[in-house]
């Protein structure tokens, strides 16, 4: 589940959630729309604040080197 889905499902406003994780509503807005990715510390605070519903790994984009198993490093 992503952050936008979580907020919609629970009915929590971006402002309320922002206060829970210690950022501004604007940061939550940008995270929800995919225009920003959190650092590891914020991703973990989001996971904790959502009781594990939004996992840190959803923010990580796979590296092409990680997905191209056929080439030597």
Largest sheet: number of strands, sense, barrel closure? none
Q: Could you give the distance between the termini? A: 33 Å
Radius of gyration: 14 Å
The number of helices is: 5
Give the number of DSSP strands. Answer: 0
Shape: globular
Q: Characteristics of this structure?
A:
73 residues, mainly alpha, 53% helix
List the helices and strands and how they pair.
Elements: H1 3-10, H2 14-21, H3 25-33, H4 40-49, H5 64-67
Helix pairs in contact: 2-3
Structure in words:
The structure is a single chain. The protein has 5 helices and no strands. With 73 residues, the protein is mainly α. Helix 2 packs across helix 3 (25-33).
Short synopsis of the structure:
By secondary structure, the protein is an all-alpha fold.
């Amino acid at each position: 589940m992503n952050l936008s889905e979580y907020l919609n499902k629970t009915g929590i406003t971006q402002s309320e959630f922002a206060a829970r994780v210690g950022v501004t509503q604007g940061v939550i807005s940008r995270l929800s729309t995919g225009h920003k990715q959190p650092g590891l510390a914020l991703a973990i605070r989001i996971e904790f604040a959502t009781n594990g519903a939004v996992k840190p790994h959803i923010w990580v984009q796979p590296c092409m080197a990680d997905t191209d198993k056929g080439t030597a490093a």
